[in-house]
Write a structure and sequence with these properties.
binds cytidine-5'-monophosphate, Rossmann fold, 14 helices, elongated, 34% helix, eight-stranded mixed beta sheet, five-stranded parallel beta sheet, alpha/beta
Length: 415
């Protein structure tokens, strides 16, 4: 069956990656809830197993009977009903993906703040699978700073926004706020599962954080990198099925997903040794570490005493991990680097990409507000070997990690 509607993506449901996928659909109380029937039908036709959860408000817009008939599964509208309890924890663990469509401003706010007063939020908080949310509301509600902040927070937690569309709204106003069409939602899910398979089982090496180069037993030369960007990349690569090795410089942050092999290092020399050991078996290496370019030539054995008025430190060059891996890189490997520049950003980044043999380089400029070290957000451009530049909005580092991995998967699909 080929579907396509109002200029939405058209596809053949049989070609989608949704066969046997277990999907929880949460439906909340918006007029767009009527589209949930079409969404369930499309998912079921594509071979997915769908379990529907509804808020009591949603049940006023569309009957649970309609959605249980279409999904061929019982629909739940409460955590407990009469003398039975619906196990939201079991459901959260069962699913390959959870989709909340439509999600109202209220449920967005509850999800962003962990207010667990209905079965959808209870399941969302228990879910370990990727979560997609497709908001639906009037244009002023959508633009309100409270809604913007809740959406941003949900993205920061690693959830996937299916953007609202522009058009006529239930109020009669015209603007942004319409829920994405069911075909678009299915397309997002399909893209996600397609992409997941490209990294699945592949070894991905990531360097992250600063390096600290000792001067004496208590002092060091270092920088302000938190490692947050590299850790977000590790989490996202793991979520897409990769076997992740994270070589992490000194930072108090750690990845939260179990199963990420984390090698803690202090210095550039230690980072270089670990990277060289793991690179040959890696399909992809992403070098997000802010490696110190120089280290003290001599490390004092004892704490240096404050004697003279001036103190000269002689620094010697550290190994360039990126350049070394760039030289060793084989045809079937991808090497991705970062550039944090303060001037002539694009020219400098392009120079580094060529010199270090990167397949693409991620540029963040310190001139951009919200981009750089120690922040929760980043604003990047990706520069490719053919000089094509993709510029992205300011986003959470988790969302930026998703964009970078999407780009890597694009390259893997052509390999
Ligand atoms: O420090 P620079 O701007 O040259 O960093 C560009 C890229 O090279 C980054 O991806 C960084 O992780 C990597 N790099 C490295 N080893 C170094 C210096 C930088 O791997 N010694």
């Amino acid at each position: 069956m080929t579907v396509g509607h109002y200029g939405q993506p058209s596809f053949c449901v049989n070609d989608l990656m949704l066969e046997a996928k277990k999907i929880i659909l949460g439906v909340t109380g918006s007029i767009a809830a009527y589209k949930a029937a079409f969404l369930v039908r499309l998912l079921v036709k594509a071979g997915a197993e769908v379990r529907v959860l509804m808020t009591p408000a949603a049940a006023q817009f569309i009957s649970p009977l309609t959605l249980s008939t279409l999904s061929k599964n019982q629909v739940h509208t409460a955590v407990s009903a009469e003398d039975s309890w619906n196990n939201h924890v079991e459901m959260g663990l069962w699913a390959d993906a959870m989709v909340i469509a439509p999600v109202t401003a209220t449920t967005l706010a509850k999800m962003a703040n962990g207010i667990c007063d209905n079965i959808i939020v209870a399941t969302y908080l228990s879910a370990r699978c990727p979560v997609f949310f497709a908001p639906a509301m009037d244009l002023d509600m959508w633009q309100h700073p409270a809604t913007r902040e809740n959406v941003r927070r949900l993205q920061t937690y690693g959830n996937h926004l299916i953007p609202v569309e522009h058009g006529e709204l239930a109020s009669g106003l015209v603007g942004n706020g319409r829920m994405a069409e069911p075909e678009t939602i299915v397309h997002h899910l399909d893209q996600f599962f397609q992409a997941s398979t490209l990294l699945a089982g592949k070894k991905v090496l990531i360097t992250a954080g600063p390096t600290f180069e000792p001067i004496d037993p208590v002092r060091f030369v270092g920088n302000r990198s938190s490692g947050r960007m590299g850790i977000a990349l590790a989490e996202q690569a793991k979520a897409r099925g990769a076997e992740v090795v994270l070589i992490l410089g000194p930072t108090h942050l750690r990845p939260s997903s179990p199963g990420i092999q984390t090698i803690s290092v202090q210095t550039a020399t230690e980072m270089a040794a670990a990277a060289k050991q793991h690179f040959p078996k890696s399909a992809v290496a992403i070098l997000a570490a802010a490696v110190a370019d120089y280290r003290p030539g001599e490390v004092a054995k004892e704490k240096i005493k404050k004697k003279k008025d001036t103190f000269t430190l002689e620094l010697i060059k550290n190994p360039d991990i990126a350049a070394t891996l760039g030289q060793q890189k084989k045809e079937n490997q991808l090497l991705i680097g970062f550039a944090l520049e303060t001037q002539e950003e694009e020219t400098n980044a392009k120079g580094k990409m060529v010199k270090k043999n990167f397949d693409f380089i991620v540029l963040n400029s310190l001139r951009d507000e919200g981009a750089g070290f120690n922040l929760l957000t980043n604003k990047i451009s990706i520069i490719h070997r053919d000089n094509k530049i993709k510029k992205y909005e300011l986003k959470s580092k988790e969302a930026v990690a998703g964009d970078i991995l999407d780009e890597i998967e694009q390259l893997l699909s052509k390999h």
